[in-house]
């Protein structure tokens, strides 16, 4: 089974323009992300997918495999699908280009032991939440699933609602997803479904249309995305103290 990791990277971030190229301890942030992802044991190759010539040039200078994609893609999954047209694999793992402290074991966790190739199939890493503030934060996407961890729903609202019992755990999605080619092609050929439009969660499209999305639980998951200048400074301090 050939597994490829893909890091979508846009230059035009609203809150932090040019963030893939922001310097952290002497390297662009995207280089740190690539090096962390390369430490994953279950990936055969890693590519950056971008629509920006500046990011493309940096990748080539640093000898990072890169694929130029259309600037019209609204989501990372759309960008992955275009990559899948030229980079052949059985399974594609979508990574965030703004997590320079990414734990490589989380990447490996997104890769199942075997991949269904005849029907659309995807995976999504999830983890337990441990504080009420996490649960109430709409930026944390809450998830519910059946006994086999097949996805049932995702929401920005705390679900399930504790009406008859409070003896349960809340889970959130981590943002590392995997797809086979059929799942990516379905995404390209479909339009947002009912609940995707309501919640603003593009991954809900798979549930809206009845596709198989398998949740995979990971323990002790801590991620730190760089979304603002403040986040960037925090990551710089952490890395300066650990390198």
Give keywords.
alpha/beta; nine-stranded mixed beta sheet; two-stranded antiparallel sheet
Describe this structure in words.
There is one protein chain. The chain is globular, with a radius of gyration of 18 Å. The two termini are 35 Å apart. With 243 residues, it is of the alpha/beta class. β8 (142-145) and β9 (151-155) form a beta hairpin. 31% of the residues lie in helices and 23% in strands. The longest helix is centred in the C-terminal third of the chain and has 14 residues, at 229-242. α3 packs across α6. Strands 1, 4, 5, 6, 7, 8, 9, 10 and 11 form a nine-stranded mixed β-sheet that branches.
Outline of the structure:
The protein is built from nine helices and eleven strands. It is α/β, with parallel strands linked by helices and 243 residues long. Strands 1, 4, 5, 6, 7, 8, 9, 10 and 11 form a nine-stranded mixed β-sheet that branches. A two-stranded antiparallel sheet has the order 2-3.
């Amino acid at each position: 089974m050939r597994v490829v990791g893909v890091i979508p990277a846009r230059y035009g971030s609203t809150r932090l323009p040019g963030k893939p190229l922001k310097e952290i301890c002497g390297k662009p942030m995207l280089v740190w992300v690539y090096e962390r992802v390369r430490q994953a044991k279950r990936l055969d190759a890693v590519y950056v997918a971008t629509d920006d010539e500046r990011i493309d040039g940096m990748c080539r200078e640093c000898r990072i495999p890169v694929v130029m994609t259309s600037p019209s893609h609204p989501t990372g999954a759309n960008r992955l699908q275009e990559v899948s047209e030229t980079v052949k694999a059985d399974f594609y793992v979508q990574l965030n280009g703004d997590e320079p402290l990414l734990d490589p074991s989380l990447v490996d966790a997104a890769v199942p032991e075997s991949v269904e190739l005849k029907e659309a199939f995807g995976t999504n890493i999830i983890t337990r939440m441990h504080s009420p503030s996490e649960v109430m934060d709409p930026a944390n996407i809450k998830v519910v699933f059946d006994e086999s961890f097949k996805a049932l729903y995702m929401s920005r609202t705390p679900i399930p609602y504790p009406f008859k019992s409070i003896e349960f755990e809340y889970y959130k999605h981590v943002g590392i997803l995997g797809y086979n080619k059929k799942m990516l092609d379905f995404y390209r050929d479909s339009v947002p479904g009912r609940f995707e439009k309501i919640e603003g969660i593009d991954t809900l499209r798979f549930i809206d249309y009845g596709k198989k999305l398998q949740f995979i639980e990971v323990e002790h998951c801590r991620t730190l995305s760089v979304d603002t200048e403040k986040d960037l400074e925090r990551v710089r301090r952490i890395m300066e103290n650990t390198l």
